[in-house]
Target: Gfo/Idh/MocA family oxidoreductase
Amino acid sequence: MTTQANPSASRELGVAVIGYAFMGKAHSHAWRNVAALHPGAPGVRQQVLVGRDPDAVTVAAAQYGWAESATDWHAVLERDDIDVVDVCVPGHLHAEVAIAALEAGKHVIAEKPLANTMAEAEKMVATAQAARERGVHSMVGFNYRRVPALAAARQHVAAGRIGDVRQVRIAYLQDWLADEAAPMTWRLRRELAGSGALGDLASHAVDQVRFLLGQEITGVNALTETFVTQRAGASGPEEVTVDDAAWTTMRTSGGAVVSLEVTRMATSRKNALGIEVYGSTGAIRFDLERLNHLDVCLDGADAFSRVLVTEPGDPYIDGWWPPGHVLGWDATFTHQASDFLAALAAGQEPTPSFEDGLAVQRVLAAIEASAAQDGARVGVEQI
Ligand code: SOE
Model:
């Protein structure tokens, strides 16, 4: 039997994921698959999964393919065998963990939204900028940028194939809070989650508008609503201190008007992100529930055609399966890890950067400010 050295071994990066719940699981899956699908990327070592509950994190680490588990993230940051820290904890800890990791010289991915407050997000950006000077890089995890169909949509818009964008409709609908009996969770506490559907879902939607159009949002008129104001907690009813849903119309720097709706109360909708972009010579339509498809009306056509985005050369497809062999939601995290590693290998800051995360945060803050004034216009520059 002959053995061959793994050429990427010398470049292998040790990864720690902090948090092992839903997002920790999704990111673990990505780290586990990224090398096999993207052999050009630097090798990674799934070194340690970190969580507060020692038994639960030990089980999760074994299940998701980690070499070890740990309960103290501070100690993990001191280790020389950790190069990348992937922050998958609730929002109130993003700033603390990400800043400490960058200051310890670790490259960082922080789950979205970047932070719970503008002050935290600004501090994260300042830390990221200082780290960048030392060759230490960071990224915020807006994974939907890595849906092949949405990456293709961005290419069509950037190439002018739908002309000048006039209108965008974007809705992100979930239903896991539609049942009044759904219990209290950290996601419904302002001090832990920052906001409700806004930070959780509108952050993705706002990022998509910036990503697809390559424009900034300049002003908003918004409403938010909390339909169920109390939920069952461990020891009785507790106040819900975040929004269940939000609606906003927004203007962009390129003169487009966006209508955005997000909710976790849309009975029967599980994870429905719908995006429509209408330009002067075409349009694009996307539905996350059929994420391998993109409806396109390009170059002056007057009807949509449905394209299966799995052809060689389509974004993110090379390295996966032959044409027509469709991808799932999980692949977006693998693409994210792959892009992150490729940027590190090139010595570049990955995108979306913490600055992108801050830009989204500013729009979310404008939406909250407008909603607090019953929908009055708030300029994003006022935030
Ligand atoms: C929960 O609402 C959630 O997991 C979001 O936090 C994710 O960002 C989204 O991708 C799916 O739904």
In short: Residues 354-372 form the longest helix (19 residues). Residues 1-10 have pLDDT under 50 and may be disordered. The longest strand covers residues 165-173.
